[in-house]
Design goal:
Strand order of the largest sheet: 1-2-3
Number of strands: 3
Number of helices: 5
Shape: elongated
Number of domains: 1
Largest sheet: 3 strands, antiparallel
Helix content: 55-70%
Distance between the termini: 21 Å
Length: 162
């Protein structure tokens, strides 16, 4: 039974990864996908849906002395992809975070504005608004890819190490 549950959630994780890659690529190109497809934020919740079964699988073979024990049993190409995605997510965050530290671009009373903790910081041009919305999604989707890959690799590719 566990094999089928892993296959189901692993497949969902692979689909989430694919969607995250597409959303991320569009965001990098400057398209605020969330403004056209508001349901894209479901990908944020999806990491928890596939993450719980992943945690249960990984806890079975937990080695408290080795923080990288979860990678044992994965094909080497899967580990290389995981490390690459992790490094990319860190670089991506380093690019997007400084641009968003002042606030979030929102529409307030029909105007594009930058808002921080509920306070309007300044008005935005349409280009600044679109760029800011795409950057925000880019930051999130860069991390989604890592989480979905960990789940997909663990649930679909991981082999027993004993």
């Amino acid at each position: 039974m566990a094999k089928y549950v892993n296959a189901l959630f692993g497949t969902l994780a692979a689909l989430g990864l694919t969607a995250s890659v597409v959303v991320h690529a569009l965001a990098v190109l400057g398209h605020p996908v969330q403004d056209v497809v508001p349901g894209v934020w479901g990908l944020h919740l999806g990491i928890f849906v596939v993450g719980l079964p992943t945690v249960f699988v990984l806890r079975k073979k937990r080695d408290s002395n080795d923080p990288f024990a979860f990678m044992r049993g994965l094909p080497s190409w899967a580990v290389v992809l995981l490390v690459s995605l992790f490094v990319y997510a860190f670089i991506n965050m380093s690019i997007t975070f400084p641009s968003l530290i002042d606030g979030s671009p929102v529409v307030n009373d029909g105007q594009y504005v930058l808002v921080n903790k509920g306070a309007v910081i300044r008005p935005l041009t349409e280009d600044e608004f679109v760029r800011g919305r795409a950057l925000m999604l880019r930051g999130f989707s860069g991390h989604w890819m890592v989480f979905y890959w960990v789940a997909a690799a663990t649930l679909l590719l991981r082999r027993p190490t004993e």
